[in-house]
Amino acid sequence: MTHRDDSVEIIQQEMTAFARRARATAARMHPELSLVSYTLLAHLDDQRGCRATDLAAHYFLDKSTVSRQIAALEKLGFVERRVDPDDHRVQVLHPTEEGAQVLANVTASRRQAFHERLADWSEEDLDRFASYLARYNAAQERLD
Amino acid sequence: MTHRDDSVEIIQQEMTAFARRARATAARMHPELSLVSYTLLAHLDDQRGCRATDLAAHYFLDKSTVSRQIAALEKLGFVERRVDPDDHRVQVLHPTEEGAQVLANVTASRRQAFHERLADWSEEDLDRFASYLARYNAAQERLD
DNA sequence: GTGAACTAGTTGTATAGTACAACATGGATG
DNA sequence: CATCCATGTTGTACTATACAACTAGTTCAC
User: Nearest residue to C27 (CA, C1')?
Assistant: First the structure.
């Protein structure tokens, strides 16, 4: 067992532990917007609207899953659909005013929670941790 | 927006992205053992047997959830129960031979996948990434 | 030693998130 | 036009999960 193996083992364990807990933590913090709803809504906000198909591709979700998630967000009044005039199959999705507001609140509170969790980290450590995570995820995306 | 804020933002985004994808990736890689079953079985193996209550506490799961997961693992023949002679309420759970074997296979294949993903990382980067993850999760556990 | 309070685990019920297959409908291309 | 493709919805099924109600065993106070 090399040092390298040890590190990989720890990374594996910690990533797994984190993944297991993330959903439950998110749900406890924000009952009004699940982790999935949150990321979908955030993507809509970020992209200034997009199609259900784009969301499915981006998040590796089935189109039926996205369809139901969007239906739920619409029912909550957080998302609205605008049929594309050039292609009547397509619905371009946008956050509503209220959706954008809720998103902003959840984002702010998530951001604060992360800041608190990372409060005693040096700027250098934060920077490196952020780079490592980005690098790890980018590599994984290419494999997916 | 300070550099510090930027790093926290990236950490948040990347951790969220990772969490969203982890379950599906695990399920695709190992249809025979879900991420949850895997971690429970691994914990049993690691601890050389423990109680359902211990699993629930360790993974922040409801005891009913653990009860059903264990029932499923038992049905698959991967876990056996031994009633504690000193306290007949207690069932000490152990991996069976077959359970240990499947666990070993899945562990090996997960380990290999992680090694591949991290193949082009320097030993120093791996070491630091592992420390950061451990530090992050330890801090979060204290807040949970 | 008996009853109250506690602990371990199971089962009933409900919900979220997910996939896959079948479908409807609109567009593109031979 | 006829066929094929793209977009999205709906039916169905399954997994993971929580909470509440329950059973059964243990401990402790009196």
Answer: A87
